[in-house]
Amino acid sequence: MNKMLQFFSENKDAITGIGIILTFLISSISLYYSIRNNKAVHYVNSITKSRIDWIQKVRDTVSDFISKTNVYNNAYYKGDYDKSGEHLSECQELCTEIKLLLNCCDERDKEICKLVDEILGNHRKYYDMVHNMRIDARGYFIENDEAEKIKESIENEIVDLVKKLHIYLKAEWSRVKYESQGKIYEKETQEFDICELEQKYDDSSYKSNIWERFWINIKAKSKRICSSPKFIILCFGVILVGIVA
User: Fold this and answer.
1) C-alpha span between 195 and 210 (Å, rounded)
2) Largest CA distance in the chain
3) How many CA atoms lie within 13 A of 181 on its CB side?
4) How many whole angstroms separate alpha carbon 57 and alpha carbon 232?
5) What is the pLDDT of residue 188?
6) Among candidate residues 200, 43, 64, the one with its CA nearest the CA of residue 120
7) Which residues, in sequence order, are CB contacts of 192 under 8 Å at separation 6+?
8) Measured between alpha carbons, how far is 166 from 215 in angstroms, rounded to an integer?
9) HSE of 68 in the Cβ direction (CA atoms, 13 Å)?
10) Contacts of 221 (CB under 8 A, 6+ apart)
11) How do residues 93-140 score in pLDDT, each as one tens digit?
């Protein structure tokens, strides 16, 4: 104990200098991580806000598209080719906007884009027929078999589009909530959640399989970690140390 006290008294200046250096290093490291965390939080908040705005934009654009391609709106433009052309241009513009809002590389996005194209194509066909249709005493179109089939196709496609978009936007909202907490939303987990949403949409009594989701998430995280360069380098280092030792 006396030797230790003597050492401290004899090297007081050196110990003070070391303390100052350590304090500086700790403060610098703390500042670095504080700035880094602030940047990460700012980035996450920015991305989250952008995705929320994007979700609302997709919802509004598809809603407008469905409203304009509803076959019952055609009665207002019968015989008026100028308004017809203007209306179809607006529908085409909305169709293009929807495609630009979605991901051209994702399969579910492609399905929605394809469905939007089908609705617009059938809407054009039905629209062309409207000008040649007769109207009965009650003001309704007298449709032939082909027109009725196209009309029915449009109605079914709109129902399908609403379903797909409900599930799509719900999945995206879940992703926003997940990633806003700084968590990684594994792709396999996303796929499982979307499949569950599809089943819940068709069957309101369906109950989620929590444990299956848990194990899928664990497997996905393990796979991602094990395939990361840092993990591979770490394993290589451990093996190398073992060989040298």
Assistant:
1) 13
2) 115
3) 8
4) 42
5) 82
6) 64
7) 212, 213, 216
8) 26
9) 22
10) 184, 186
11) 999 999 999 988 888 899 999 999 999 999 888 887 877 777 666 666
Read off the pLDDT of residues 31-75 as tens digits, 9 standing for 90 and up.
666 666 555 555 566 677 888 888 999 999 999 999 888 876 555
- d(C-alpha 204, C-alpha 210), whole Å: 17
Average pLDDT over residues 154-161: 92
Q: Which residues contact 212 (CB under 8 A, 6 or more apart)?
A: 192
Exposed / middle / buried, residue 140 (Cβ in 10 Å: 0-12, 13-18, 19+): exposed
State the Cα–Cα distance between residues 51 and 76, nearest whole angstrom.
37
Q: State pTM to two decimals.
A: 0.70
Residue 99 and residue 77 in contact, taking contact as beta carbons nearer than 8 Å: no
- How far is CA 231 from each of CA 8, 60, 235, 238, rounded to the nearest angstrom? 43, 44, 6, 11
Structure tokens at 74: 């055609």
Residue 8 tokens read as: 């401290």
Type and span of the H or E element at 135: strand 134-135
Residues 121 and 104 sit within 8 Å (Cβ to Cβ): no
